[in-house]
Amino acid sequence: MIAPRVQEAAIRLPRLPAYVYDLPALDAHVAAVRRALGATELYYAVKANPDAGLLRVLAGHVDGFEVSSAGEHAHVTGLFPGMPVALGGPGKTDAELRLPHHRLHVESPYELRRLLDTGLEADVLLRLNPGLPVEGAALTMGGPFGMDAAGVAECLPLFTDRVRLRGLHAHLASGLSAPQLLGLAEALLGDGAYEEVNLGGGMAVSYASPGERFDWAAYGAGLDALRRGRLLRVEPGRALTAYCGSYVTRVVDVKRVHGQAYAVVLGGTHHLRTPVTKGHDQPFVVLPTGAGPGVTDEPVTVVGQLCTPKDVFARNIGTSVRVGDTVVFAMAGAYAWNISHHDFLMHPKPAFHHLTS
Tens of pLDDT along 237-279? Predict the structure, then answer.
């Protein structure tokens, strides 16, 4: 689950908590995804993790980056001038509509009218919200995102030679298998009315079974069968970078309350928000670097230093742990540090390390 080189680095870190990013693992993973997708374009959704070290590895494999704010746009274009950028996200400001881009994902008829009013040229994908049933999704992107058929119909007559319609964007859900995503793709591509379609992300990542990976080969082959001359694009985030990141910390107390064993670690979910927001146990290993009191081979709940009962990394996991042990949480390379409430209680920020070999 956690590579030996990451574990070896973890016990040598001078300051904890810390994030460790395994760049060779990321490089190998994204290269394999790129091969599996064949003719399908691959963009990376920067919102998953904008760490510059990760982006530099990704830039060697992806066709472009998807950004959702002026801040992300400035970050990416500053690192990679000339790299294709797709600008998405609801509630774009007038300033964001003026940003240079390869594609602009328009969310509403009003947003399109505001874009037209800028007087600038633009290549547009209309974000579709088709209301398709999505079984088994971890998160569905319905509600205010994109447009229904009536919204799309309102947009179609507005396009000009200056603001050009290139196709559709449809990110419908997260946490789906390759067959599920291919079923959605088939439904979206059925009428063949658009020559370019961005199918978004949503590839499943299992925190309960870290060894299970999304079937990129089956997905790429399935998209090849559906392409029929069209340009298809995907923009995964979590499924590209989750596996390369680890959050490393140290046990500062082991205690028993009403019969329940707890291991209290430095840091907390203000550094790694993922488990509490998604309601899962973050996978981890305990490295026996401690000599303090502890428990042996029993269910342990791992918590952080925050003054809230929601500051929980994992519940009732069978393990042995002692004060001073090093805990390495896996799958912390996406939607982790960058979505966490860093300043709650004003604890020190974690350190960041990039393994290059």
Answer: 999 999 999 999 999 999 999 999 999 999 999 999 999 888 8
Q: Is 114 exposed, middle or buried (0-12, 13-18, 19+ CB in 10 A)?
A: middle
CA distance 99 to 218: 36
Report how far Cα 77 is from the mean position of its chain's Cα atoms.
19
Task: Say which residues have a Cβ less than 8 Å from residue 20's Cβ, sequence separation at least 6.
Answer: 6, 9, 10, 13, 245, 246, 248, 328, 353, 354, 355
Q: How far apart are CA 79 and CA 60, in angstroms?
A: 13
Assign 3-state DSSP to the chain and report helix, strand, coil percentages, each to 5. 30, 30, 40
Quick one: which of 338, 349, 274, 339 has its CA closest to 312? 274
SS3 18: strand
**How wide is the angle at C-alpha 75 spanned by C-alphas 129 and 277, nearest 5°?**
55
* CA 92, 98, 102, 108 torsion-angle sign: positive
Task: Record the tokens describing residue 24, joined without a space.
Answer: 């060779």
Write the single-letter amino acid at 281: D
Name the CA radius of gyration of the chain, rounded.
22
Low-confidence stretches of the chain (pLDDT beneath 50) = 137-141
Give which of 164, 135, 132, 161 is closest to 146, Cα–Cα. 132
| Residue (of 273, 218, 213) closest to 243 by Cα position | 213
Q: For the chain, what percent of residues have pLDDT higher than 70?
A: 96
Which string of DSSP letters, residue by residue, matches 214-233?
Answer: --HHHHHHHHHHHHTT-EEE
Cis ω before 179 (30° cut-off from 0): no
Q: Which residues are catalytic?
A: 307
3-class state of residue 323 by DSSP: coil
- Confirm if 49 and 30 have CB atoms less than 8 A apart: no
Backbone angles phi, psi at 225, to 5 degrees: -70, -30
Task: Please state, as a whole number, how many other Cβ atoms lie within 10 Å of the Cβ of residue 33.
Answer: 23
Choose among 174, 222, 229, 221: nearest CA to 196: 229
Are 19 and 200 spatial neighbours (Cβ–Cβ below 8 Å)?
no
